[in-house]
Amino acid sequence: MQFEQFSHDTALVLGQILIDLAKKGRKSIAVQISKNGQKLFYHAMDGTSPDQEHWIRRKSNVTARHNHSSYYIRLYNESKNRSYFEAFSVSPEEYAVHGGSFPLAVKSAGVIGTITVSGLTQEEDHQLIVDGLKRILHS
Asked: What is the pLDDT of residues 28-37, one digit of tens each?
């Protein structure tokens, strides 16, 4: 899923879409959208905790390193029956191989950032981003 272009305003719109989807499902999430290392959007809904910031940072690190969703990286390593942390010599304090972070890609530039959600199951975090991307890209 790629954008034609991605501005700071696009991050605001996408972030609000993700929050609205969570509210519609009566879920509490934290969401962060970063572009080229700059946080363009961050919101933690009522019912979340400071832990979500750590999950966001760690899941986002996986996506930024591999240019794939954190859920894909988890499933890929499980299919190889190997530990992500041993395979890549990284620390679980810095990387979380759990669903909920997605590469932010622009057609003319490739991956330029991350979209990360925390607060639900890893499958739900991942699916919320997919649903949000479908909504903004097909509107």
From this structure: 999 999 999 9
